[in-house]
UniProtKB/TrEMBL annotation:
Keywords: Acyltransferase, Lipid biosynthesis, Lipid metabolism, Membrane, Phospholipid biosynthesis, Phospholipid metabolism, Transferase, Transmembrane, Transmembrane helix. The keyword Membrane applies. GO terms for biological process: CDP-diacylglycerol biosynthetic process; phosphatidic acid biosynthetic process. The lineage of its organism: Bacteria, Pseudomonadati, Pseudomonadota, Gammaproteobacteria, Pasteurellales. This is 1-acyl-sn-glycerol-3-phosphate acyltransferase. It comes from the Bacteria. The chain crosses the membrane at residues 7-27, 95-114. The HXXXXD motif is essential for acyltransferase activity and may constitute the binding site for the phosphate moiety of the glycerol-3-phosphate. One of its GO terms (molecular function) is 1-acylglycerol-3-phosphate O-acyltransferase activity. Pathway: Lipid metabolism; Phospholipid metabolism; CDP-diacylglycerol biosynthesis; CDP-diacylglycerol from sn-glycerol 3-phosphate: step 2/3. Residues 65-180 form the Phospholipid/glycerol acyltransferase domain. GO terms for cellular component: plasma membrane. It comes from Haemophilus pittmaniae.
Length: 238
């Protein structure tokens, strides 16, 4: 019964956020700060899932950077999404536009849609990202795993985000969220604590397009270790 009530309430809230957010974002058409506002709206739904969130931001985040986060499951919408800062847009697959209610919101807020089926076009998109970061004074949010991990640990990283960072000459800021897979039971009142943390910026000046795989692997190892530490901290706090 609790699960059914939660699902109904969450669906109603998400539809309201999408409708009101779309109106809000049309008024500020594709303003890059729209994304952060909408992400905070969704993030405030976490109590409906019985979650307590501990958000750890940097005292001073770079004005232009590429954020990379771990992509676990649909609960990311109410956990790590809250970490999106103003003037940060995300990169998502083009097919998102067809998701009812959410698709139009995703587009109108100013996010960047990527055609993953066209590899040459996807490569040119990374160059376009680098240009937009500097010309429009933006930061970009990406999930370098490319898909939800769904309990398989931190999946290998694709290199697109790292190519864009090197081309733009901006740092990479890892953002990690403690494990939520199999930790949330919608029939349980209290689903415990989740920690989301923004790690220190990583300077990319020593890397070129020829060794971005090394950069990707380095970031992957840093994030995997930190996620394990956050999971241990959550377990100790129970």
């Amino acid at each position: 019964m609790l699960k059914l009530a939660r699902v109904i309430l969450v669906v109603i809230c998400c539809i309201l956020i999408c409708v009101l957010g779309t109106i809000y974002s049309f008024i500020r058409f594709r303003n890059p700060s729209n994304v952060g506002v909408m992400a905070r709206w969704f993030g405030r739904l976490h109590p409906l899932f019985g979650l307590k969130l501990d958000y750890r931001f940097l005292p001073q985040a770079p004005s232009r950077c590429i954020y990379i986060g771990n992509h676990q499951n649909n609960y990311d919408m109410v956990t790590i999404s809250y970490m999106v800062l103003p003037r940060t847009v995300s990169v998502g697959k083009k097919s998102l536009i067809w998701v009812p209610f959410f698709g139009i919101l995703y587009w109108v807020t100013g996010n960047i849609l990527l055609d993953r089926d066209n590899r040459s076009k996807a490569h040119s998109t990374m160059s376009e990202l680098a240009r937009r970061i500097n010309d429009d004074n933006l930061s970009i949010w990406m999930f370098p795993e490319g898909t939800r991990s769904r309990g398989r640990g931190l999946l290998p990283f694709k290199t697109g985000a790292f190519h864009a960072a090197v081309a733009a000459g901006v740092p990479i800021v890892p953002v990690v969220c403690s494990t939520t897979h199999n930790k949330i039971d919608l029939n349980r009142w209290d689903n415990g604590k989740v920690i989301c943390e923004m790690m220190e910026p990583i300077d990319v000046s020593a890397y070129t397009k020829d060794n971005v795989r090394e950069l990707a692997n380095y970031c992957h190892d840093l994030m995997a270790r930190r996620i394990a530490e956050l999971d241990a901290e959550v377990a100790e706090g129970k």
